[in-house]
TrEMBL record:
One GO MF term: acyltransferase activity, transferring groups other than amino-acyl groups
Entry protein name: Acyl-CoA N-acyltransferase
Recorded superkingdom: Eukaryota
Domain N-acetyltransferase, first and last residues per copy: 28-221
Length: 248
């Protein structure tokens, strides 16, 4: 019997939405993005305990930012889902370029759920932190950019693709192992088998010990600290770099 191209995702019997449950947190699920997340995201990303660790989102995070971002995520997710739908009936499971589930939600006693975080996998567009990349050659300015272009052009499922991960969790739910479990679920059940991910790097601020533990508990190995690698919100940050190499 052929497996569904959406395997191992589950389907909500009431809404038809796809989701991925967490092994050790039965009240937490990973789902697809929703347009209804737009008004909820600013409160999460403006929380001082969250935004202090994020370099990407603008601060303060306004509803206009949320509208643009969530709309983009929904469109990207629909493209992945359409790819999977088109592949139904094939003998082998299709390798895709992303995860359709990424939004971390807590299920309440009445069956409703609340957005509490996000975890996303993406190809490295710049390769200055790629393994073996050192600032000791004349081609330093160009080679990371060229490698990044090559990385983005590789076919889905290519084991040489270098991936990175980003995540955040509401401060109300930190310290409970939720992010570690969420990353474990998406890594083991989707990223490796359904995206063909074999190489990843993880980057955290040097002082973000919680994020570092999430990486280490999911098999990442510390490589180095890069001094003053980036500036975010008016402050320069040292970056801890971790590597994951998957062997099957």
């Amino acid at each position: 019997m052929l497996q569904s191209q959406f395997h191992p995702l589950k389907t909500n019997a009431s809404t038809g939405e796809l989701y991925l449950p967490l092994e050790y947190h039965p009240n937490i699920i990973l789902t697809t993005p929703r347009l209804s997340d737009i008004p909820k995201l600013p409160d999460l990303l403006n929380d001082p305990g969250v935004c202090i660790w994020l370099r990407g989102p603008p601060y303060p995070y306004e509803i206009e930012h949320s509208e643009e971002w969530v709309t983009k995520l929904v469109e990207e997710t629909e493209e992945i889902l359409q790819e999977l739908k088109d592949a139904e009936g094939n003998d082998t499971l299709k390798l895709v370029g992303g995860s359709p589930v990424r939004c971390i939600r807590e299920i309440k006693e009445d069956g409703t759920d609340v957005l509490i975080g996000d975890i996303h996998l993406r190809r490295c567009e710049t390769m200055e932190l790629a393994p073996g990349m050192k600032n000791d050659s004349e081609s330093w300015e160009d080679s990371p950019k060229l490698l990044g272009v090559a990385n983005m052009r590789r076919e889905n499922g290519d084991p040489e693709i270098l991936w990175s991960v980003g995540y955040f969790l509401a401060t109300s739910h930190s310290g409970q192992g939720i992010m570690t479990s969420a990353f474990k679920a998406i890594l083991e059940q989707w990223a490796i088998p359904r995206m063909g991910i074999r190489r990843m790097i993880g980057e955290t601020y040097a002082e973000n010990f919680g994020s570092q533990r999430v990486l280490e508990k999911n098999g990442f190995v510390f490589r180095e600290i890069v001094k003053e690698h980036l500036e975010a919100k008016g402050k320069k940050h040292d970056i801890c770099v971790f590597d994951l190499n998957v062997s099957l």
